[in-house]
Amino acid sequence: MTGKSVEKCENCGCVIATNEPPFLWRGKILCVQCRARLEEDPATAPGQLVSVEGKQVPQHRPQTGDVSSNEHLRGAPWRRWAPQGYAKDMAWLRGAAAKAVGLAMYSIGVLYDHGAGLARAHAKAMPWYRSAAARGIDLAMLKIGKDYYLGQSGPRDYAQAMAWCRMAAATGNGFAMYGIGVLYSRGEGVPQDHAAAMAWWRKAAAKGLGEAMYAIGMLHYTGNGVPPDQNEALLWMQRADAAGGQAAILAREVIARIKGS
User: Fold this and answer.
1) Is residue 154 in some structural domain?
2) pLDDT digits (tens, 9 = 90+) for 18-49
3) Where are the beta strands (DSSP E) in the chain?
4) Is residue 65 in some structural domain?
5) Which side of the chain, N or C, has fewer Cβ within a 10 Å radius?
């Protein structure tokens, strides 16, 4: 027994791996997957975080890039949240970033991106995301890919969006795998290829992503890239429903149509 306390995600309750740095999000300790889900809604208030997919998330992959710097992240003032907390967080994160802690760089980018405690400035967020990505932070790679996909910093560039998604997927990031499937299904940055989309969505579904399960179900339901198969579509929609989240709501509508036909 080492006596070291075990960190738990304050959203889903899962135990955070000892080599996976926790994230600070509005004064709460979150695991990697909860942070990725929740940060897209900056209006979420402290104490109002909801369970990801309504259940404990799957076993987490160790975060790459900054395992040796966990002690800096774990020294953060996680539970000293106050209205002025964003300013305190930024000051601490800048100190950690000066020590080349990639997750701190990523978090600074998020604060700039969402205007949390400071003027919203996506242009200032991007250099921090790139610095974090250079240190192996997969969520930063996804942010860069999203920037290219939406054309937030310039013209849309689907090929670059695909390239950054592939980099993130190579680390084992399921959201990136799902994104690659979306690009293949729409023919954005690559020739349209439903079979390739299916393959990538299966990888993402294996990571527990309900969105990927729903997408696979829709391919079977509509017959895009595979022969139409109502039974297979129903199976995947039921899996998406069980996974929870927005995909579950959409899946239930398709389940009702299949059962009503």
Assistant:
1) no
2) 444 445 555 566 666 666 555 444 333 333 33
3) 23-25, 28-30
4) yes
5) N
